[in-house]
Amino acid sequence: MVNSPDANFDLIRYFLDQYQKEVKELKKINILIAGKTGVGKSTLINAVFRENLAQTGVGVPVTQNLNKISKEGIPLVIYDTKGLELSQESQEEVRRAILEEISKPERKNNPDELMHICWYCVNALSNRIEPYEIEWIRDLAGQMPLVLVLTQSLGDQYRELFYAIEDLNLPISALVPVLAKPYKLSQDLVLDQRGLQELVDRTLELVPEALQTSFINAQKVDNKRKLHRANKAVLGYTSSAFAAGFTPVPVADAAILVPMQVAMIAHLTSIFGLPLDKALLSSIISAVIGTGGATFLGRTISSSLLKLIPGLGSTAGGAITGATAATITCALGYAYNKVLYTYMDKIYRHDHFDKETFMTLLKEAFKAELKKQTPNPQGSESASDKPDKPPKA
Ligand SMILES: Nc1nc2c(ncn2[C@@H]2O[C@H](COP(=O)(O)OP(=O)(O)O)[C@@H](O)[C@H]2O)c(=O)[nH]1
Ligand SMILES: [Mg+2]
Fold first, then answer.
1. How far is the CA of 191 from the centre of ligand 1 (A)?
2. 66, 71, 106, 313: least surrounded by Cβ within 10 Å?
3. Residue 38 CA to ligand 2 centre (angstroms)
4. CA of 44 to the centre of ligand 1 (A)
5. Could you tell me the distance, in angstroms and rounded to a whole number, from the CA of residue 258 to the centre of ligand 2?
6. pTM
7. Does ligand 1 lie within 6 Å of residue 152's CB atom?
8. Is residue 42 in contact with ligand 1, taking CB distance under 6 Å?
9. Nearest atom, ligand 1, residue 184 CA
């Protein structure tokens, strides 16, 4: 039944629903991005987070000088300050208003509203940090972990300011020089982006464990972290409980495994973080489950690939046990992660999603993973770096 196009349509629907549910369940991380106008806050937001968040996100004013930016499908809320460089008298007022907002009890006592981290941005090109900013940084650092970001850090020019700030012994958690966007010095001299990886690393050290998955999902700087998280999650689907609770099914009915695996794929996808774009998500999941009679998981598994699984072979009447189901699921999970990882940058750049290639790569990776998961003919285990292999059939 799962091989019919109608059932495939339902699986796509099922995937979309599951994916949306997974994304909703991710707790949102609240990041305060403070600094004077023009230092490069928006540029930084767009460079670190997916979907050009500063432009495409929805902005809502919280106070006159604090804007809340969010976007459906991204488990993150940015609070962007504005107008900090106003006249001496209004600076004081702006600071007071923002500080009052972030420290009010409704926020402090509500984990969903609490500010989790501040990125305070100072433009390295300006070569100085003003006294009122130093006070402001001290105040903010008293409320939450604070990373001082030296934006527009070019070549070696930023060093002077970097060391001057170090000497101030501010109560900050990290000082990170960043160039968020390549900088064109001349016709043939362009400075590369820098520091974004360090900013991601430091931030992850400073936010609660429960929010790390959300941050990893929302950012686009470090795709390897997405891959590692997602691979860890695969292990959960190969637990012995799964194996024990599964009633062996005939090979011909292997397709009943599919909804379970689609749920896993939705979960893995939520760890990576994809745009809530129905067409893209549908393409990806249909590349996984196959369409129009070429069902990858249904027919492919129940034919040639099963030969790779010991004790099952292609014999008529062979049954898929819980252990085999776990092997298949685990191999699919790792294969999916591997292929999605290679596609991440393209997806974030909105390049055309080539479903056919995705499908081909997935099949190859799936075969390779199945081989990894099963003992080779000599009886010794094949090389695998996965700590918890599923039980063998
Ligand atoms: N090349 C380059 N330009 C930057 C960078 N950061 C900021 N800018 C430029 O500085 C100007 C102000 O940046 P913006 O992000 O709008 O500052 P904001 O007011 O703090 O949000 C823009 O013209 C940016 O293109 C950077 O890392 N590289
Ligand atoms: Mg801005």
1. 14
2. 106
3. 7
4. 8
5. 45
6. 0.88
7. yes
8. yes
9. 1
- pLDDT tens digit at each of 393 positions of the chain: 344 434 444 788 999 999 999 999 999 999 999 999 999 999 999 999 999 999 999 999 998 889 999 999 999 999 999 877 777 777 888 888 999 999 999 999 998 999 999 999 999 998 889 898 999 999 999 999 999 999 999 988 899 999 999 999 999 999 999 999 999 999 999 999 999 999 999 999 999 999 999 999 999 999 999 999 999 999 888 764 465 455 666 555 555 567 778 889 999 999 999 999 999 999 999 888 774 434 445 444 545 455 555 555 444 455 666 677 777 788 889 999 999 999 999 999 999 999 999 989 998 998 898 888 766 544 444 444 444 444 443
43 lines ligand 1 (CB under 6 A): yes
Residue nearest to atom 25 of ligand 1 (CA): 43
Residue with tokens 């774009």: 277
